[in-house]
């Protein structure tokens, strides 16, 4: 609420003040998003160090004791392991979610550079990667992970946290594949 004033604030000053307020709030949100990405990478780096020191069984223990989901732990760990701090992809202006998509490609530096140059969103990067990998899979005769039929035009890509991406020939096979394989169990409720 504005303080009472005998002299009303001219409309143009009010609009300028609101515009400045809007710009400030958007800048703050962008900074928080960047901090979130940096935090995810820092957590991943620490998880890699923990795993090196105490072994792979330490990750579920950390998840349980810190109250963090295994999917979160595995995602951050996998990104940090594939892209250590000195990796060139870590120097590019990409979000942590972009890096998660790059886990499934053979040449992440090339894909990362394309994403930056073309200013791809995470969804666009995922779609481009899926399309390229799907064409490659059909060309090499890859078969559906569920029914073993050749991949057709309506294939789907699936990925559970902590697991590699798989392709099925149809959404129906994809659902069947997911139902028949238990998800990674979390050590806590």
Q: Which terms would index this structure?
A:
single chain; 189 residues; mainly alpha; globular; disordered C terminus
What does this structure look like?
This protein is mostly helical and 189 residues long. It has a domain at 10-82. Helices cover 59% and strands 3% of the residues. It contains 7 helices and 2 strands; from the N terminus they run ααααααββα. The chain has helices spanning 11-54, 58-66, 70-82, 96-102, 108-118, 122-139, 171-180; strands at residues 156-158, 166-168. It has a two-stranded antiparallel sheet. The longest helix has 44 residues, at 11-54. The two termini are 45 Å apart. Mean pLDDT is 83; it is low at 185-189.
């Amino acid at each position: 609420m504005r303080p009472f004033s005998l002299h009303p604030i001219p409309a143009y000053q009010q609009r300028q003040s609101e515009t400045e307020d809007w710009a400030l709030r958007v800048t703050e949100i962008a900074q928080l998003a960047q901090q979130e990405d940096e935090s995810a990478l820092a957590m991943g780096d620490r998880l890699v160090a923990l795993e090196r020191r105490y072994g792979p069984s330490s990750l579920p223990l950390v998840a349980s004791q810190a109250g963090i989901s295994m999917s979160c732990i595995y995602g951050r760990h996998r990104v940090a392991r594939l892209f250590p701090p000195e990796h060139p992809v870590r120097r590019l202006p990409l979000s942590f979610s972009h890096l998660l998509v790059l886990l499934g490609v053979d040449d992440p530096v090339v894909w990362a550079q394309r994403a930056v140059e073309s200013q791809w969103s995470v969804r666009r990067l995922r779609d481009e990667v899926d399309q390229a990998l799907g064409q490659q899979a059909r060309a090499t005769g890859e078969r559906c992970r569920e029914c073993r039929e050749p991949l057709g035009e309506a294939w789907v890509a699936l990925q559970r946290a902590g697991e590699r991406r798989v392709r099925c020939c149809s959404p129906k096979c994809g659902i069947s594949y997911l139902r028949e394989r238990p998800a990674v169990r979390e050590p806590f409720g």
